[in-house]
Amino acid sequence: MAHIAFDLSKLEPFVHDNELGEMQAMVTAADAELRQGTGAGSDFRDWLTLPKDYDKEEFARIKAAAKKIQSDSAVLVVIGIGGSYLGAKMAVDFLNDTFFNYLPADKRNAPQVFFAGNSVSADYVHDLINLIGDRDFSVNVISKSGTTTEPSIAFRIFKDMLVKKYGEAGAKERIYATTDKARGALKTEANAAGYESFIIPDGVGGRYSVLSAVGLLPIAASGANIDELMQGAADAQDAYTNPDLTKNEAYQYAALRNILYRKGYTTELLENYEPRLQYLAEWWKQLTGESEGKDQKGIYPSSANFSTDLHSLGQYIQEGQRTLMETVVMIDKPRTDVDVPTAKDDLDGLGYLQGKNMGFVNQKAFEGVVLAHTDGGVPNMSVHIPDTTPYTLGYLIYFFEVAIGISGYLNGINPFNQPGVEAYKTNMFALLGKPGFEKLGKELNARL
Ligand SMILES: O=P(O)(O)OC[C@H]1O[C@H](O)[C@H](O)[C@@H](O)[C@@H]1O
């Protein structure tokens, strides 16, 4: 039995009994494309076996580097964007205290973990430098291509700061580079400077890389257990191999979101009831959006954080245009619970909740919302996770990764490329005056 549970029971008004079964032939074909490498993008499927095939020597080096960072740094600055950022951010948030970065140092036993290079905001960098102050820090710069503009700029800035603070030799001991094994400017620089380096495997694309050094070093540095994380993913790797739709819940999710998409539910909201899970959706949005949004089709991935957004987006979800479907990630057993206190009087009218705890209220909110949104015409699927341990997160990551690989093939696209991302980059380089882009620069400037 799978460690996490996919609940499709509330889809009844939207999907007829026979429809899932009718998808079996297509799912079997998609499974063959994915597993046998006959589909488009087959060079980027190594994440499929990564939870078991990962480089054990490098894994030990990651743990040692994490320990060193914990021993000599009050802050770890993780520099990266897209797949070189979102997985680590998602996992650090998911696995740690809600206020991890705000805790006093003795209650954290790990450095604060901040992310940079995920925008070109000067204010953000300025304020982060200000926050670090004169405290000890290290940098983990992450880029598969080694040439992405945003992290390159941030790395220059924080490297400069390290060199000024610790000298060339001291800075070198505090820079960890995670990049391609051979290509890219970051690799060239890491070799030349002698930074400790970790490799993003060739066959693992950015948005599928959280279980490589890309995610593992920041996650381990935050104090979370990466052995358990990998074990959860490895068990999920075993759990989701059967192409039989009655047996494989990740494949059910893939098939059902495509059934719904073809009926006009073109936006999927990933939802949670736990603020620490906000970045799970951000990671999932890149995984799904970059994998599936191409050839002028694909489900638009969006998200909502409940119950917060029930008081803002809730109106639209309940009664707006009927193009939404929702997938809730629900934690069955929260890490902690807080009782609703007993009050002498009942001026706030909450007497009926006395003796109950917040977990119970959250659960009832979830149940009430599922029924209300279903009644309002929003198909609802739920992924129930038992807890928020590293094991469960590893399992959940693999659930979504394999589901989206299958889902992409079901919709007839290459789930493993992202050609559309280049258009803005080319324009930006031309407008910035990068050598080689002069002609386009002139054309674009004339249009502005
Ligand atoms: O890791 P990097 O090569 O720096 O890439 C970071 C990100 O930026 C790109 O533009 C891609 O669209 C993403 O798939 C990638 O994750």
Q: How do you describe this structure in short?
A:
The protein is α/β, with parallel strands linked by helices and 448 residues long. The protein has helices at 17-22, 24-36, 50-53, 56-72, 86-95, 122-132, 149-172, 185-193, 213-221, 226-239, 249-262, 278-292, 314-319, 358-375, 390-410, 422-432, 438-447; strands spanning 5-7, 75-79, 112-116, 137-143, 175-179, 196-199, 267-272, 300-305, 324-331, 380-385. Helix 5 (86-95) runs antiparallel to helix 12 (278-292), helix 10 packs across helix 15 and helix 16 (422-432) packs across helix 17.
Could you characterize the architecture of this molecule?
The protein is α/β, with parallel strands linked by helices and 448 residues long. The chain has two domains: 5-39 and 230-411, Glucose-6-phosphate isomerase like protein, domain 1 (Rossmann fold), CATH 3.40.50.10490; 47-224, Glucose-6-phosphate isomerase like protein, domain 1 (Rossmann fold), CATH 3.40.50. Helix content is 47%, strand content 12%. It has helices at residues 17-22, 24-36, 50-53, 56-72, 86-95, 122-132, 149-172, 185-193, 213-221, 226-239, 249-262, 278-292, 314-319, 358-375, 390-410, 422-432, 438-447; strands at residues 5-7, 75-79, 112-116, 137-143, 175-179, 196-199, 267-272, 300-305, 324-331, 380-385. The strands form two sheets. The chain has a five-stranded mixed β-sheet, with helices on both faces. Strands 3-2-4-5-6 form a five-stranded parallel β-sheet, with helices on both faces. Helix 10 (226-239) crosses helix 15, helix 12 packs parallel to helix 15 and helix 16 (422-432) packs across helix 17. The longest helix is centred in the middle third of the chain and has 24 residues, at 149-172. It is globular and about 65 Å long. It starts with a strand and ends with a helix. 44% of the residues are buried. Bound molecules: 6-O-phosphono-alpha-D-glucopyranose. 6-O-phosphono-alpha-D-glucopyranose is lined by residues 81-84, 143-145, 148, 151, 206-207, 290, 418, 421.
